[in-house]
Structure formats: C-alpha cells, structure tokens
Input
Amino acid sequence: MAKTAADCTTMAEIRENIDRVDDALMSLFAERWSFIGRAAEIKAGLGIPADVPERVRQVRDNARRNAEAHGLDGDFYEEIWARLIDRAIAHEKTLLGEP
Output
C-alpha cells in the first residue's frame, strides 16, 4: 500500500515503499529508454550523430535544475544523468553504426 515516508511506522513499511518507488523509477527509465531508441531512428534519417554535445549539456543542466527544484543535490543527480547519457550515446552509436 502506497504511503508517504511520514506515514510509515515500521521498517517493513519503509522497505515496501522504497521497493514500490524503485519499481516506478524503473518503469520511467524504461519509458525514457524507448525514446532513446526512437531518437536513433530519427537521427539516422536526418544524418545526426549520436553525440550532440549541446544537447548533452542541456540534458545535464535539466537534471541539475530538476533535482534542485525537488530539494535534491544537483551535483549528484547531474553525475547520474551523465552516466545515463553516456550509456544512451553508446547505444545510439551502435544503432547508427558509428565507431
């Protein structure tokens, strides 16, 4: 049963809700990944390379800004997004046949 952290009174409830949130995050990551695959398809048709540095900077800045808007550590979440972006670029390069 979904609860807020403040509503939890036992470690079992905390763990149950952390697992619930983790599952929801994975669902969102799966949705995000579907857009990465589609981006590669569109880029192929337009002759755009996998790595577009200005877009990478924009996504990292967005991650920092979004994290901070939620009271989270912008540096930490920008680092996480940097790893996501690196993996997405590598995947797109594979799909696009880039070295």
